[in-house]
Amino acid sequence: MFKEIELERIDISGEVPVEEPERQYYYMAKAKRIVEERSAQAGRALTACIKTFGCQMNARDSEKLRGILENTGYRIVEQEEADFVLYNTCTVRENANLKVYGHLGYLSNLKKKNPQMVIALCGCMMQEPEVVEKIRKSYRFVDLVFGTHNIYKFAELLVTAFESQRMVIDIWKDTDRIVEDLPSERTYAFKSGVNIMFGCNNFCSYCIVPYVRGRERSRKPEDIIHEIEELVKDGVVEVMLLGQNVNSYGKNLEEPVTFAQLLRRVEQIEGLERIRFMTSHPKDLSDDLIQVMKESEKICPHLHLPLQSGSSRILKIMNRKYTKEQYLALAEKLRAEIPELSLTTDIIVGFPGETEEDFQETLDVVRRVRYDSAFTFIYSKRTGTPAAAMENQVPEDVVKDRFNRLLSLVQEISQEMSLRVQGQTLPVLVESVNEQDANLVTGRLANNLVVHFPGTAEMIGKIVPVYLRECRGFYYYGETVNAQDGTNSRN
Ligand code: 5AD
Ligand code: SF4
Fold first, then answer.
1. Cα angle at 146 between 248 and 148, to 5 degrees?
2. Collapsed DSSP state (helix, strand, coil) of residue 453
3. Which region holds residue 407: left if phi is over 0, alpha if psi is between -120 and 50, else beta?
4. Fewer beta carbons under 10 A from the terminal one: N or C of the chain?
5. pLDDT tens-place string over residues 54-101
6. Ligand 2 proximity of 219 Cβ (cutoff 6 Å)
7. Residue 281 Cα, ligand 1 centroid: separation in angstroms?
8. What is the Å distance from ligand 2's center to 306 Cα?
9. What per-residue confidence (pLDDT) applies to 2?
């Protein structure tokens, strides 16, 4: 594992190491020297801000980027009025791109006030050649652009950008390497995402992820276990195992391991209390995984199982490789095997050629599965994907109308499902002091529902039994109970 002191020992006048991660340690030491000089000139500590767009993978990547910036001597701040600003971008839907362009306009004004400011862009959006071209031409104040495959080289790129007068652009088309043992700076002391694999091989016809995140690569189980053990030593009680399709974990390893086998090993880690994972592709969900979830003391009873569409016809064009009936059978099996399971999903409306009948099939699945919650998306055309070239795009007003109808059904069912645990006393992992009311703390049940209850900052990171008094739609108000006698704190 990475240790901070190692940087001090590195001789940066010597030769640059060829091997990773030593090469990056060398560049971190070098960047640190440059940051020290610049901050001496400025007469104050230099600040850095990372803004993350998109999914949990990006959030985890940002923790790694933050770890490197912190080790090079930057003081991390929330505001973009900083000496170094990095946007970790998302491109899964067009809206994500538009947000980044909007923010860049704001950054250009900040840079006018602070010409020493360094602006960097990375993440999925940067893997699209048209985006990089646009930035090169129209956003010339940007200093550094890199992609998803060379993120481990951030320290090296940072030094290159410091030493260059021009925009530094380094984008790789793909990679088969995974560099271990780089630092990271967690957002939460008590929980962490842990990558178990990178990339996606599924090529759903609407999705840009396989193009911008590359082919599937799994980390070795030993590396994953070691990382989690270190996290637990550092106070982490909950991990979220991350991958675009965790159910195909380990297939391409030299010694193949299944996701269920990995979970069994993670379960053994002493001190770890909760295990979550994301995302599961329905086509690869094994009976063995259901069995592990059922037996486990630590795996949370929550499964995110993207449906995308309820129409078998559309699912085929989406290249999802399951039918409506297969999905329903799987959901039924899950509900029967793990009754307390919280099932959540992603649904796209307005995929090219979607008819009212297809949409009705989606509503039918939602009514039958009764999701605990669902993310609903309006189909967004992504250049380069097969669906973008399909001619029968659905008119905007039709899509909006379907979206609203789906949303109200999803919300109605979700509220009913949330009521399932009312009146029970269940363990809650306390995450923060409530933003609106400082007398309350906010935490999550194992099934991922949010609970607010009276408490103090000292409770953050602890798992406490909470009586679920009142359900307010998608969250609860509760009260702590005395763990010994099960009585209410009010009594
Ligand atoms: N348009 C709309 N939603 C999309 N998603 C992926 N690609 C698109 C797209 N082109 C959604 C899927 C996926 C989630 C992460 O984003 O539902 O599960
Ligand atoms: Fe995209 Fe499909 Fe891969 Fe998920 S499984 S990232 S939706 S291609």
1. 5
2. strand
3. alpha
4. C
5. 999 999 999 999 999 999 999 999 999 999 999 999 999 999 999 999
6. no
7. 13
8. 9
9. 60
